[in-house]
Write a structure and sequence with these properties.
With 151 residues, this protein is of the alpha+beta class. It has 4 helices and 6 strands; from the N terminus they run βαβαβββαβα. The longest helix is centred in the N-terminal third of the chain and has 9 residues. It binds a DNA duplex (12 and 12 nucleotides) through loops.
Length: 151
Amino acid sequence: MSETNYWLVKSEPNTYSISDLQREQVTIWDGVRNYQARNFLREMQPGDRVFFYHSNTMPPGIVGLAEVSSTNIDDPTQFDPQSKYYDPKSTIAAPRWQTVQIKFLETFPQMITLETLKQKFTPEELQLVKTGNRLSVMPVAGAIAEKILNL
DNA sequence: GCCAACGTTGGC
DNA sequence: GCCAACGTTGGC
């Protein structure tokens, strides 16, 4: 019996927003080109919950929840020369970038702003609130996730 | 638009 | 393997 893990992914809403996910229901989380973030994507299990965060907005914050619906997917954009995420060093035989498919669960009635998160949690509890944190995929401890869901 | 933080690249 | 230069992220 494995516990549900919680994660957080960032997205700029003018690139891909929670309403885009709500419309499409599922999406492959492609385009991540940071090794630390990729390693977290590789750890994700079906059924894990994913907080959806809007960055580069005023204000920024968590806007909803998704669920991991399929894991260990080779990011298709790494092989596509037309894609801005094309990686010429990646091959079909030895792909570098794996990701997951996520499924829409809900949009929160109101955004949980970064400001609120900073008030409630220390950087040790929640990496997201650490100054200068640029990681776009990160784990959220279960106890902290519960508190976020109850805000 | 500014700029701090920080990951990546490449010369040596 | 070091580290300066550079590019990107993302809050403000």
